[in-house]
Specification:
Helix content: 10-25%
Number of strands: 12
Distance between the termini: 30 Å
Radius of gyration: 17 Å
Strand order of the largest sheet: 1-12-2-8-11-10-9
Length: 219
């Protein structure tokens, strides 16, 4: 298991002052962005068919790894993203030790791999009335609600870089998506989103890093 780094508590972005805003103002824009850098990210490998695996994970995270492809399961501050038949990504607002220590204990008799990737990736949350048009301009996924439902995720290329796209849901004024991206690509993705969003409306960034540890990933 990798050692936790301080990177997950630092901003991955250089943000121009004119793009910073307050939550209330940002929510009124046709497109808004929020950096979510201070979360725990754990890559989990295992088998849902192995006796006790699902129950062991659920006992710690609060929910079992989703079996259905491209789905997201959540419980309180914890999310589990389906990445493959035997691979998931756990994202939590809880400190990494609060997840890894009990999870390692619970999975002691199981065949599994657990890697802390918190320092290597972060989340850009984007929302608003025009958000689907912005993402679709650089991504081949069909983001229409009939094809891409709430709590559905998919790995794809956006602006030419690998991104895990998660449709969080809807709020008054538009949809919300989380874009999980490697920190080394985050600035490129942010700059591309800002440029693409300028074509459809005013952009404001809700700057939230580092996040308080009691924050959640829910909408």
């Amino acid at each position: 298991m990798n050692h936790t780094t301080e990177l997950s508590r630092q901003s991955a972005l250089h943000i121009p002052a004119d793009l910073r805003s307050t939550p209330g103002r940002a929510r009124r824009q046709r497109v808004w962005l929020e950096e979510r850098a201070d979360f725990t990210h754990l890559n989990l490998r295992g088998s849902v068919d192995e006796v006790g695996f699902n129950a062991s994970v659920a006992a710690v995270v609060g929910v079992a790894p989703p079996r259905q492809p491209n789905r997201v399961a959540h419980s309180g501050p914890n999310l589990i993203y389906w990445l493959g038949q035997d691979e998931w990504l756990i994202v939590s607002s809880s400190p990494v030790q609060m997840i890894t220590v009990p999870l390692v204990t619970a999975l002691e008799q199981q065949h599994y791999a657990l890697v802390d990737v918190s320092g290597g990736q972060m989340i850009l949350r984007i929302g608003g009335a025009e958000v689907r048009n912005v993402i679709a301009s650089g991504c081949t996924l069909d983001l229409h609600p009939r094809a891409f439902e709430a709590d559905q995720c998919a790995q794809s290329l956006l602006a030419g870089i690998p991104v895990l796209v998660h449709r969080v849901g809807d709020l008054k004024g538009g949809s919300i998506f989380d874009l999980l991206v490697r920190r080394s690509f985050a600035q490129h993705l942010f700059d591309w989103l800002i440029d693409a969003a300028r074509e459809v409306g005013i952009v404001c960034l809700l700057y939230t890093s580092p996040r308080p540890r009691d924050a959640t990933l829910s909408r």
